[in-house]
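Same chain as my last thread, 56 residues:
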Amino acid sequence: MSLPKFVTGMMFALAIVIGWSYFDGASAGTILLRAIVCALIIQAGYFVGRELSASH
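reply #2:
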């Protein structure tokens, strides 16, 4: 996956997490924490996927 596609997908995923948290009534701190955790998980997945595809 190219970087622009990854960034676009990550932004949509973060927007969904932020929207879900907001409508769930979460505090601003909780929304920020969820967004950071989501971004870290997506980044780690992207890195692992790139490493696995490069090794084949």
